[in-house]
Amino acid sequence: MEVGIDKISFYVPKRYVDMTDLAEARGVDPNKFHIGLGQDQMAVTTADEDIVTLGANAATQILTDEDKATIDLVIVGTESSLDESKATAVVLHDLLEIQPFARAYEIKEACYGATAALMLAKRHVLANPERKALVIASDIARYGLNSAGEPTQGAGAVAILVTANPRILALENDSVPLTQNIYDFWRPTGEEFPRVDGKLSNQTYIDSFAKVWEEYKKRTGLNFDDFTALTFHSPYTKMGKKALLPLSDNAHLLEEFEKAIVYNRRVGNLYTGSLYLSLISLLENSTDLVAGNRLGLFSYGSGTVAEFFSAKLVEGFEKNLQTEYHRHLLDARQRLSISEYEKIFNSKGLGQAGVKFSLREVLDGIPFYNKN
Ligand code: CAA
Asked: Does one domain contain both 126 and 137?
């Protein structure tokens, strides 16, 4: 029996900053951001948005009443948690009106959290094929004004419905995880911004990809030619290419890589959701994909846990995408001036919008929400 991604959608904040504006305000050559980092726009949350509203909007786009009656596992991967104790998944389970006899919990390992959730969801559905599992990745990446990490901020959520006989991607049984205790990026409890050793984080990401790929090759006998496309965790979009290029200059993979970063270039880092935004970007922007193609996914969470795994496209996958909605979502956002962005950034603590409001209020406040 195949288990995998039946539906997948993302949601991003209603406002963004243009990276040329940010570069000019910081006295930096705009090419450093557009070419050096590979970022064109950066999502910015306001006081009415938090990981709950982002996650609820991402999930509502894909869930039907039948899904809500069948889901019995809700896992949220996040490193922007609102509470040390209560899981965001419990709030989302309520807001999304999922039937009560379910497990709901939050999972943390930096940007790797959603992949851990996906692997658990897969095992759950393998054991209970009549059930469905909902994985939500939701984060707000904030490094601070004028910090080295500032141009790699962003925010957003991805929701993934995991089922038997999935209609988009069947997950293969080939994943290779890697855990290494390294302090490249971390955020001690109570601190607003992460501590980052930027160069070490880049190098650890690159080394982690090389290690899991080498092990994957050894275990499966597959090589880069067996893949139609690779998608990467994308803290900034050049990062995946920096990891791939030392190992392969396969022209087709590099061509598809550009399709897999179309959306990420316009959003920035979603932390846990970044790899899955890249996957959606590939699925919705590549014109070369057909059923049976093998896609590779590289997940990386600082601290660190990395994992490489593959999935195969299933017949008719293109009919189950949300391409039009996603493009509208990105195009309809409001561009902020740098002074507006700075004011919003300074005035905002961690959002609590989703905790305080009902789903109706959360969604009514969102003009792009177009389900009804
Ligand atoms: N034109 C074109 N390119 C230019 C340029 C110009 N005028 N000026 C600079 N560049 C290039 C540089 O050559 C460099 O490219 P290469 O790395 O390919 O050589 C790139 O722009 C960035 O320049 P710097 O290395 O000088 O940038 P920086 O030191 O200011 O910071 C950063 C870069 C370390 C990524 C920093 O933004 C940061 O700390 N970000 C947060 C941490 C992060 O994202 N780490 C990634 C791995 S960790 C992870 O993946 C988990 C996660 O989500 C956080």
From this structure: yes
